[in-house]
Each structure stands twice: as C-alpha cells, then as structure tokens.
Write a structure and sequence with these properties.
By secondary structure, the protein is an all-alpha fold. It has 10 helices and no strands. It has one domain. About 75% of the residues lie in helices and about 0% in strands.
Length: about 230
C-alpha cells in the first residue's frame, strides 16, 4: 500500500472535513483549540494508516509536527494582518512536506518519482485518494475562496472568513460534477460545468473587486481540473 496516500487522507479529513468554524476560531487563540484540532488529525491518520509499516511513529510524528506548525500562527504571528491566502498555501505546503518526508521514511526506496506518491497499488489506496480529492473539492477550495475574498475586500482583517452553507453546496456540486466528468470519456465537457459560475459572478451586482469575480470561478476550475487529472492518472 502507498503510505503517502493514507497519510494524505488522514490530513484532508482531519484538517478540513472535521474542522468546524468553531475549532478554527479556537485554535487561533489558545491551546484548547489546537489540542482538539491535532487530536482529530491524529485520529483520522490512525484510522487510515493502522497496520501499515511504522504506522505508530508516523502518527506521532505527523501529530507533533502539525501541532508545531499550527501553533506558530497562534503564538508567533497571532496578529497576521493580511495575506491569509498566502499563509493558507504556505501552511498546507509545510504539512505536505511533512507527509512526503514521513512516507519516504516509512517506505524507504518506494518513492523514486513524483508519480510514485500518487500511484495507487490497491483498491483501498484509490478509494483514499478519491476521498482526499473530494474533501479538497468540498471543504478546502471554499476555504481558499473565502480567504481570497477577505484579502481583496477586507484588508487587515484578522478573523476566520465565513463560508455559508449555500455557497459550499453550490460550489461542491459544481466541482464534484466536474471531477466526475473528467473520469469519463466526456472529459472535454468539464469546462462547461463552470460557465454558469462565470456568468453568475459577472452578471450579479456586487461590490467585490473585478479581480475576485474572475479569479473565484477560475480557482474552482483549475483546482478541479488538476485534482481530477491526478486521480485519473493514479
């Protein structure tokens, strides 16, 4: 089995699917939220890696490093005034590097190329890769869009952006449908799924900057296309 795919699933479920707005607010101000958050990370990682080589030290290492990375925002840069989008991307890249490193340690010699990190050896591997992708499409992309909106419209804001249920639902339908189309012989129809989103943003009266109006559906489209392609070749 591919350890990276398993720890990635644990991260996506624990860091996004199980992280509520309340937990996100709590971890910004103190240890209680951080402990709850990394506890969920540990539980999700344990669920998906149990029984794999060196899975216990893998869980411990991921949990500790996740706590250290997230605590930097809480205690070292609590008043980060801007660039939440940039911070989000850097934060996720750091977690990704940890997962890459610990996977290479747990399965020495397995990862020789970039493709090896997404290669699915078993049906369970593939199911977890699809799970990670769907979590990203349903939970991660809305967070990125909300932070982008906050950076463009509320300079200096230092709070967790709000994501409405309606926004999440409509965006999820759009992205998941695009993902499913890419997995079929009709992948060329996938861009059409995002046409209503572009038209809605352009025609809807809004005080948001034009850059955001254009970038938001573009972020959804590019992310869906990239993630769908990764699953397709895995």
């Amino acid at each position: 089995m591919n350890m990276f795919v398993h720890v990635l699933a644990g991260h996506m479920v624990g860091d996004f699917a199980l992280q509520t707005g309340r937990i996100a607010e709590m971890k910004r101000v103190g240890w209680q939220g951080l402990v709850i958050h990394v506890g969920l990370i540990a539980a999700a990682t344990a669920l998906f890696t149990a029984g794999l080589p060196r899975w216990i030290p893998v869980i411990i290492f991921i949990t500790v490093t996740h706590l250290l990375i997230d605590s930097a925002r809480t205690f070292l840069i609590p008043e980060l005034p801007r660039m939440n989008t940039l911070y989000f991307c850097v934060d996720q890249c750091m977690h990704l590097l940890v997962m890459v490193g610990v996977s290479m340690w747990a399965q020495p010699g397995y990862y020789k190329t970039l493709y090896d990190f997404i290669h699915t050896q078993t049906t369970w591997d593939r199911a977890l890769l699809v799970t990670s992708t769907l979590v990203a499409l349903v939970f991660s992309i809305p967070v990125l869009e909300a932070m982008l909106y906050q950076d463009l419209t509320e300079p200096g804001a230092n709070h967790v952006p709000t994501i409405t249920a309606r926004t999440r639902l409509l965006g999820s339908i759009e992205r998941v449908l695009g993902f499913l189309l890419v997995q079929t012989p009709y992948a060329y129809l996938m861009p059409l799924v995002f046409v209503p989103h572009y038209l809605y943003r352009l025609l809807k009266p809004s005080q948001a900057p034009l850059a955001y109006i254009i970038i938001r559906p573009t972020v959804s489209f590019v992310a869906t296309l990239l993630l769908s392609w990764i699953v397709l070749i895995a």
